[in-house]
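During the reporting period the student researcher (J.K.) took over the structure-prediction task from the postdoctoral fellow and processed the backlog of single-chain submissions. One of the processed entries is reproduced below for the supervisory committee.
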Amino acid sequence: MDQTVILSIIIGVTSLIVGVVAGRLLFAKNTKKQIADAEAQAQNILKEAELRAETIKKEKQLEAKERFVQLKSEHDKEVLERNRKISDAEGRVKQKEISINQKETALEKQLKENEGIKDALNRQIEIVNLKRTELEKHQEEHIRRLEKISNLSAEEAKSQLIESLKHEAQTQALSIQQDIIEDAKLKANKEARKIVIQSIQRTAAEQTIENTVTVFNLESDEIKGQIIGREGRNIRAIEAATGVDLIVDDTPEAVILSSFDPLRREIARLSLQRLVADGRIHPARIEEVVEKTRKQLEEQIMEIGERTVIELGIHGLHKELVRIVGKMRFRSSYGQNLLMHSRETANLCAIMASELGMNPKLAKRAGLLHDIGKVPDEETELSHALLGAKLAEKYGENPAVVNAIGAHHDEMEMQYVISPIIQACDAISGARPGARREIMQQYLQRIKDLENLALNYQGVEKAYAIQAGRELRVIVEADKVTDIDSDKLSFEIAQKIQTEMTYPGQIKVTVIREKRAVNVAR
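J.K. obtained the following C-alpha cells:
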C-alpha cells in the first residue's frame, strides 16, 4: 500500500512537470524542434521517474522481508522460553511426586512400628491392672485386720480422726487469731500515734489571733475633730457606710474601730487611712472612699485566695471557692485565724494521707475547704459543715471532698476514707495548745484557780498569775519558810498544777522569799 501511494505521488509530480513544460512551450510559441526536444525531455523524465519508483519499491520489499524475519525470530525465542518453563515445571512436579511417595512409604513403616508399640503397651496395661487388683485385695485384707484389732470400721476411724484434727485446728486457729488481733491493735496504736506526731511536727502554721477591735493611730488629736465632723455627721457617715462602731475617747492620738466582723474593720481602717491622708473628710467623700476600698479589698481577697491555692499546690478550684478561701483571712474561729487554721489542717491532711497510702492532693483539698461554710455571703440556718458541703457540691467538687466537709462534725454520714482524716486534723489544729483563744470567763477562772491553788499552801503570803497565766509568782513569809522549803514548795505547786488543772502550753512557778529589815528614823 505504501509503495502504490509513493508511485502515485511520483507519477503525479511527473505529470505536473510535463504539463508545466508543455505550457511553457505553447505560450512561448517555440519552434517544432523545441517542442520535440521538450517531448524527448519529458519522456526521459518519465523513464527516470519509473526507474526511481521501481528502486523504491524493491527497497521497501527488502525492508518488509527483514522485518518479517526479525518478528519470526522473536516469536521462536518466546516459544522456546515457554517450552523451557513448562519442562522445568514438569521436573518440579515429578520431584514432588517422588518426595510424596517416599513420605508415604515412611509413614506406612512408622504405622507398622506404632502398631507394634501399641500391642506392647496393651500387654503392659493388662499386667498393671492385674497388679492393681492384687493390691486392692491386699489393702482390703489389711483394713479388715485393722478393723478387727481396733473394733472400729474404716468410716468410724476416719470420722474420729477428722473430728480430733478439727478440734486441734480450731484451738490453734483461735490462739493464732487472738495473737494476730493483739499484735494488730498494738501496731495500729503505735502507727496511729506515729503518724499523728509526725504530721504535727512537720506542720508549723502561724496562728494570727484576731480581736474585735482595731486601734487606728493618728498623727495628732486635732484629726479627731475632722473625723467626728460638724454635729457628728462624718462619724455617723463612716459608721453607716462600713458597719463599724468608731470610738473616739480620751486615748491619745488613736481612734478605736469596734466590730465582730474583721472584714468590715479592715475596710473601715483602710478608708480612714485614705481619708486622713487626703484631708477631705465629708459624707460624700466618705461614701466614695469606702466603696473604692471595698472593691480593692475584694481584689485583695481574690489575690489571697489564689496565692493560697498556689502555695498549697491545689489546681482546678472554682473561682468562687478561691474567693471564699481569700475571705477566710478576715475571719476567726475561737480566736484562731480561719485561713491559717484551714491551711494547717490541709497540710496535716496531706501528710496523714501520704502516710496511709492515700491521695494526698484530695485530702489537702478537703482540708483547705472544710470550713468554707463559716464565711457565707448570705445568712442561713444551716450549720457551717452542711453549708460548706452544699457550696462545694454547687461548684463541682469531688464527692469525697463534699462528704469530708459535711461530715467533719458528724452532721453527715462518713462515706469516704478521707472523711475521718479531715475530722482528726481539724481537731488537732484547733485543740493544740495556743491555737485558740479562751473566752474571757474561762481565762479569768483559770487565773483565779492558779492563785487559789498556791494560797492553800502554808507560809504563802501572796500569789500572782502573770503573763496571761504562763507564770505563777508565789511570795512566801521569810520567817515561816526557809530556802530549802522554797525549793520544795515550788516543786509541789508545779506538780499539783500539772495533775489537777487543764491549761495551754506550760506554767512556770516562781517562789520568792526575802528578808526585809525596816526601821524608821524620826
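The committee noted the following: The longest helix spans residues 32-150.
J.K. will present the remaining backlog at the next meeting.
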